[in-house]
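Posting for a labmate who doesn't have an account.
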Amino acid sequence: MFKKKRQPREADSKQVFDYACWLLARRAYSTAELLKKFRTTFIPNEEIFEATLQKLKKLKFQSDESFAQGFVEMHRDWGKRRLELELAKKGITKELIADAIPSEEDEVARCREALLTKLRGKEIPSEWKEKQKLLAFLARRGFDLDVIQKILIS
């Protein structure tokens, strides 16, 4: 009924590289995510893991910069705070996060886009209670209060 948890197995560099290619063929991964996958699948051997990551970067199969850019682009309806939090969870450095996060003007446009998607072509309500619901929705998406107020007032 329950799946047995697989025990980590001994690995050589070819097995780790093949596993990494298989993972990256499905979706993009950060370096920290790949290391976590390697450690749960194989008996830890940091030399092989680091060599594999270097080979992946050399072949341009994996890059934290492109991962961060793609993640931000995929989550266009998220605000700056949520994007920073999620990228940090995935092991991206603060410098790369700062480079990937959109500017203030882009933040306003992204917030407006998320609001229009939520409203589905309706007008912004004039009732305070309805505006409060929209404010809460946008805050959960990670938009700053200043940005939300700009959108809801204009």
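Reply:
Got it, the structure tokens are right above this. The mean pLDDT is 92.
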